Amino acid sequence: MNAFVLGMRLLWGSGRRARVRLLLMALGSALGVACLAAALTIPTIIAANDARVTGRAVLPGSSQNAVYQEFLDPYGSQPLRRVFIGRTGVGPVPVPPGIKTLPHAGEAIVSPKLGEILAANPRAAGLVPGRVIGTIAPAGLGGPDDLYAYIGTDPRTLSEAAPLGHFGSKYTQHEVLDPTTLDILRFTLGCIVLLPLVIFLSVCARLSGESRARRLAALRLVGLSMKDTLRVNAGESVVAAFFGAVIGLVGYLGVNEVMARIGLPGLHWYPADGRPEGVTIAVCLLGCPALACVVGQFSARRAAQSPISVRRTGESGPPKKYGTLLLIPGLGIIGGYCLLSVMGRDPSGGSGGAVLVPGAVLMTGVGLAFGLAPITSWLSRRLAASSTSLPLSLAMRRTEVDPGSALRVVTGLVLLVFGASLTQGVLIELDQVSRRTAPVQEYSLPLAELTPHQRTQLTALNGVQAHGLTAQSWIATLEEDLPRVQGVVATCAQLAVFTQTARGCVDNEVLRIEDPTFLSDEDARPGASFPFLLGNGRKLVVSVPQKAVTVRAYDPSEFAGPSLLIPPSLLPRGTQLTGARLVLVSPSDPDTVRAVLDGIGAVAPTAAVEPVGIVIDSLAQLTVIRSLLVVGMVLGLVIGVAAFVVSVADRAMERRGQVAALGLLGARAGTLRVVQVVQVLLPLVVGLGAAIVAGWLAESSYLITGGGAVHWDWEGLPLLFACALGVMLAAAVASVPMVRRHVDPEHIRRD
User: Fold this and answer.
1) With contact defined as beta carbons under 8 Å apart, do 426 and 182 qualify?
2) Greater confidence, 135 or 4?
3) Cα(76)–Cα(280) distance, rounded to whole angstroms?
4) How far apart, in whole angstroms, are the C-alpha atoms of residue 472 and residue 295?
5) β-pairing verdict for 548-553 and 511-514
6) Is residue 247 within 8 Å of residue 23, measured between CB atoms?
7) What is the 3-state secondary structure (H, E, C) of 290-319?
8) How far is C-alpha 460 from the geometric centre of its chain's CA atoms?
9) Rounded-to-integer distance, Cα 164 and Cα 712, Å
10) What angle in degrees, to the nearest 10, is found between the helix axes of 404-434 and 195-205?
């Protein structure tokens, strides 16, 4: 305790410079802890959502008083869940969380978000038949944007009714993210947030390291023991880190209250969901000071053991190369998977890749962080020996003497680029799983549920490339086994958009459809006739022609399987086929799919839309994952930039005495600025180059072991190179003002 009090008195009595340093350490720790709390709270938000959704899950039972039927439909790009309740008795029925009683026939209780939609769009009233008598409380909703409704109805109207049992399940249901995807998300966030965060907190704990080392060495020389010297340093670091952790937690709580009301694309939460739990608070309040204490003890050990060398600025030893050794197994594993793919072998599947690849990625990331100092030292020594340029020689010699500064300056940005490459791979893999691999996406709607004006609006939606109709031929009774065929009403141009290839198509003629990838329809024999029922009660008789159009349809597709191509001109004006479905087609990229689904929901909110080949829950999950990964990248960017700015500014302040000495020896201001820029750019170029190569290999190994169609992300490389060039340019510009033109020569003898 005496050593701690001595350290605080010395710190507070060391002048404004020491107090500013303490403040910067606290603010840096506050920023890091706020980012840490955000990263650790993301799983808590998802778990809270899943717990409420599971608590309202309706399960069948043996009730004699009520039956139910649950519906899941897309409203735009959002899932809409409706539970229809039919009372069959007068006895008590279970009540789900969030409401006081289940609605009776003709009544409905909806979520607040669905209530807003019903109030703003009268055409959506068909989604919730009956009078809205109340709203669901947060205890019965996954989040503020949840679309959910309990609707009372006549039990006889429910085609697949089941006896109502109880609400709430022991097992998680309708989770925001499935467990496998959540594990991938945790790992990715750990790489792009937690690894740079550890580096940043270490940087904050070592601010003004040289000045602090000289002060500790002076204490050691006047008789303070080695243990007490280390305690003095630890006290300063722990106090700054603890106050910073408190400020960071308070700041995060304020940001959470704001962001909970704004939300993220696909994910909204209540403010209470985002408040950190006890474990998170303990990690932030205890983990950050503990890390600062460990880093401070490590950095101050040389001053405590050899104070003479510190006071006389003795030459430090070369950096340790143990961290670089982690690159060998890491790059070996991910490079091995890439080599197997190049050789034509498929190493996907099995549990080996699920364990080896994440471990190799972590070893590679840690190896990049700790291997940067020895690599930079070796490279700077070689460049200094062969250079004839004064600025380059000065910069390389300085980097050779103090390569550890490279670790503090650029490691956050290097890990950010490495994590960005890995994030691209995760998004590609999840995108392949969540959507169809075809370049087009189809949307099928019952034509009977659309008015002529709605049909016109749907075909003109932004993103929709073409439309067509599908219908089956009419038969008088389903009891007889009569032949039927399915027809497509479309022009040749529309058919070409819906299919991969279409050869031999002629407009305004009925054609037989042949697809070599499907079995031929035996009923569609040339010369046979099939009636199609029209909306006015008449029949359109179509004969199967001898002439055919050869197509290759996508799989799955509404155009895969029909036997007849019927031109739209054959339909009488103002009529439509009974039982037909309107099929729209658009590009299959997720943004366009969501935009088209939102457009369909706005034009025809009560129509049952079927996105062919995709599940609306999977599309919603992909939106959530994208949002959370973007949050992770933003946090990683903030941490990386903060670590860079703090390190460069701190190093410039620490080297004012050296800059003053060079100025007295005749070095020009321009030369000193070039030296400063080169000192920053050398480790940055080395680190970013290694991060791009290692990150791309890590991303490729992840895609290869994932078993998807895409193994090599060539499209992502230009983006990584552009980001790396932007980072280097910004770093060079930011480094120029760090060297002041007028330096006080007194800095040489201040200590």
Assistant:
1) no
2) 135
3) 37
4) 74
5) parallel
6) no
7) HHHHHHHHHHHHHHHHCHHHHHCCCCCCCC
8) 32
9) 51
10) 160
Alpha-carbon distance of 235 to 300, in angstroms, equals: 12
Any idea what DSSP says for residue 266?
Answer: T
Quote the crossing angle between the two packed helices 209-221 and 226-262, to the nearest 10°.
150
Collapsing DSSP to helix, strand or coil, 102 comes out as coil
Percentage of the chain exceeding pLDDT 70: 73
Residue 612, number of CB atoms within 10 A of its CB: 20
> CB under 8 Å to 742, separation ≥6 — which residues?
none
Helix H or strand E encompassing 730: helix 716-735
Q: How far is CA 433 from the centre of its chain?
A: 15
613: left (phi over 0), alpha (psi -120 to 50) or beta: left
How many other β-carbons are positioned within 10 Å of the β-carbon of residue 489? 25
Q: What angle do CA 411, 367, 412 make, to 5 degrees?
A: 15
pLDDT in tens, 70-108: 887 777 667 888 888 888 888 888 889 988 888 988 888
CB neighbour list of residue 236: distance below 8 Å, 6 or more residues apart: 7, 8, 11, 22, 212, 296
Alpha-carbon gap, residue 691 to 425, rounded angstroms: 15
Instruction: State both tokens at 678.
Output: 């080169």
| Alpha-carbon torsion, ordered 601, 607, 608, 614, to 10 deg | -30
Residues facing 513 on adjacent strands: 549
- Token pair 């409420």 is at which residue? 52
Tell me the average pLDDT of the chain.
76
* 3 state SS of 581: strand
Q: Which of 377, 247, 343 is nearest to 704 (CA)?
A: 343
pLDDT of residue 750: 47
268 is written with which tokens? 């909204």
Query: Could you give the CA distance from residue 168 to residue 185 in angstroms, rounded to a whole number?
Result: 27
CB atoms within 10 A of CB 5: 11
Whose tokens are 């003002």? That residue is 737
CB 326 within 8 A of CB 364: yes
pLDDT tens digits, 424-450: 777 776 666 555 567 888 888 888 878
The 3-state DSSP class for residue 435 equals coil
The beta-strand segments (E) located in 429-475 are 440-446, 466-472
Answer whether 68's CB lies under 8 Å from 58's CB.
yes
Q: Which SS3 state, helix, strand or coil, does residue 133 take?
A: strand
DSSP state of 642: H
User: What is the C-alpha separation between 612 and 100, in angstroms, rounded?
Assistant: 38
Amino acid identity, position 493: A
Cis peptide before 567 (omega within 30 of 0): no
DSSP 43: H
d(CA 234, CA 292): 8
Non-local CB neighbours of 390 within 8 Å, separated by 6+ positions: 671
The torsion angles phi and psi of 222, rounded to 5 degrees, stand at -90, 5
Site of tokens 């243990």: 227
Residue 343: CB atoms within 10 Å: 8
**Helix (H), strand (E) counts: the chain:** 21, 18
d(CA 575, CA 587): 30
